[in-house]
């Protein structure tokens, strides 16, 4: 049996389509090359002199920046330097950067998602979204449905890269000996239904009613309207939650809530929600704000937050119904509505 194709081999026929696809493929391969270095750096942890300690600075959204965030951002930036890019948005930079006005693409990325947990040795990752160029920062005023490619790298027990160029989702794992990514999953599909959900349940009292209703149904388990047991997971690292959902289904929620500054949740549209939404849809899942499709949103600013509900399509649709038509949702779960088990 021959070896599985490398990421480079996988993107070759896509790259042959036209000049823009060639640039997209080179950008993906450049991010993958940076990811190999990042994976090694993270693997060595404090032995490499990188601790994950806060550096005193904050990013545009107010998160404390660690030495690792800044180092990883620099590695990705350096890897992308030879690629013709019209505009670049990084979670770690307040402003978008203008590049080559004649370039065919624009990129938004989160260099190290989940980095606030790096000191606890959980999986973290790099998320990216590639848009058609559109006159500098204006490229990022377009809806996520126009993404040319999206993906993320997860630095976990294995380092893996998840990619879509709008033709399904493929997964590649880093072959550490050969220093290449090899395809381990083609046309990956998110199971339609699921018994797993992920949410930061400590915010329960701050949620809107539809989110409480959904979680109440899950917590009620076999005694509730769903008549089955559920299992909860919360890693606190978006890439790890997304990877789990791709492998075995599930639903992830980071809704807006009543805390100050959290009206639109915690996740950023351009480099967290949009790429994840593109991946979920391409894998047969879904991604919504609760009320509408993430990929239809018109961004208002580069670091804007957005509520995100993503994963197995059946659960995402049910959560949407709880938001948009609670009466219809309770007809689906009549026992629960009648008993009102968890209603205050
Ligand atoms: O980038 C934001 C992020 O770290 C995600 O990776 C993760 O899903 C979320 O924030 C964790 O939020 P919380 O701190 O509320 O658990
Ligand atoms: Mn992040």
Question: What does this 3D model show about the protein?
Answer:
Helix content is 32%, strand content 22%. It is globular. The C terminus is likely disordered. The protein has two domains: 179 residues, Fructose-1,6-Bisphosphatase, subunit A, domain 1 (Fructose-1,6-Bisphosphatase, Chain A, domain 1, 2-Layer Sandwich), CATH 3.30.540; 137 residues, D-Maltodextrin-Binding Protein, domain 2, CATH 3.40.190.80. The protein is built from nine helices and 15 strands. Helix 1 packs antiparallel against helix 2 and helix 2 packs antiparallel against helix 3. Bound molecules: 6-O-phosphono-beta-D-fructofuranose (F6P) and manganese (II) ion. The site of manganese (II) ion has 4 residues, from strand 5.
Keywords:
344 residues, alpha+beta, Fructose-1,6-Bisphosphatase, Chain A, domain 1, 2 domains, 8-stranded mixed β-sheet, 5-stranded mixed β-sheet, 15 strands, binds 6-O-phosphono-beta-D-fructofuranose, binds manganese (II) ion
What can be said about this structure in brief?
With about 350 residues, the protein is an alpha+beta fold. The chain has 9 helices and 15 strands.
Q: How many β-strand stretches?
A: 15
Portion of residues in beta strands equals 15-25%
Poorly predicted regions are: 335-344
Count of structural domains: 2
Overall pLDDT score: 93
Strand order of the largest sheet: 4-3-5-6-7-8-9-10
Question: Would you give the CATH topology of the largest domain?
Answer: Fructose-1,6-Bisphosphatase, Chain A, domain 1
Helix share, percent: 25-40%
Shape call: globular
CATH architecture of the largest domain: 2-Layer Sandwich
Tell me the name of the CATH class of the largest domain. Alpha Beta
Largest sheet: 8 strands, mixed
User: How would you spell out the order of helices and strands?
Assistant: HHEEHEEEEEEEEEHEHEHEEHHH
Radius of gyration: 20 Å
Give the cofactors and ligands.
6-O-phosphono-beta-D-fructofuranose, manganese (II) ion
């Amino acid at each position: 049996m021959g070896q599985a194709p490398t990421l480079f081999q996988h993107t070759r026929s896509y790259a042959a389509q036209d000049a823009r696809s060639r640039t997209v493929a080179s950008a993906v391969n450049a991010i993958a090359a940076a990811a190999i270095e990042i994976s090694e750096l993270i693997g060595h942890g404090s032995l490499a002199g990188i601790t994950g300690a806060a550096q005193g600075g904050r990013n545009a959204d107010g998160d404390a920046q660690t030495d690792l965030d800044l180092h990883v951002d620099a590695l990705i930036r350096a890897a992308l330097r030879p690629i013709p890019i019209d505009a670049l948005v990084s979670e770690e930079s307040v402003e978008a950067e203008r590049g080559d006005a004649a370039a065919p693409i624009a990129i938004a990325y989160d260099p190290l998602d989940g980095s606030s947990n790096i000191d606890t040795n959980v999986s973290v990752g790099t998320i990216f979204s590639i848009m058609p160029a559109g006159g500098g920062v204006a490229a990022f005023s377009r809806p996520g449905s126009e993404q040319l490619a999206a993906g993320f790298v997860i630095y976990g027990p294995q380092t893996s890269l998840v990619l879509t160029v709008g033709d399904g989702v493929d997964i590649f794992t880093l072959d550490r000996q050969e220093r290449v990514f090899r395809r381990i999953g083609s046309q990956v599909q998110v199971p339609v239904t699921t018994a797993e959900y992920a949410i930061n349940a400590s915010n329960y009292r701050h949620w809107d009613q539809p989110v409480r209703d959904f979680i109440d149904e899950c917590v009620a388990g076999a005694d509730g309207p769903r008549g089955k047991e559920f299992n909860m997971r919360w890693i606190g690292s978006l890439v790890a939650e997304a990877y789990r959902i791709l492998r075995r289904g599930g639903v992830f929620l980071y809704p807006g809530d009543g805390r100050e500054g959290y009206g639109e949740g915690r996740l950023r549209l351009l480099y967290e929600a949009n790429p994840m939404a593109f991946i979920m849809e391409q894998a047969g899942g879904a991604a919504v704000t609760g009320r509408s499709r993430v990929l239809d949103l018109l961004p208002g600013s580069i670091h804007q937050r957005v509520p995100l509900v993503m994963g197995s399509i059946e659960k995402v649709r049910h959560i949407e119904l709880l938001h948009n038509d609670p009466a219809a949702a309770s007809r689906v779960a009549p026992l629960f509505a009648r008993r009102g088990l968890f209603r205050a």
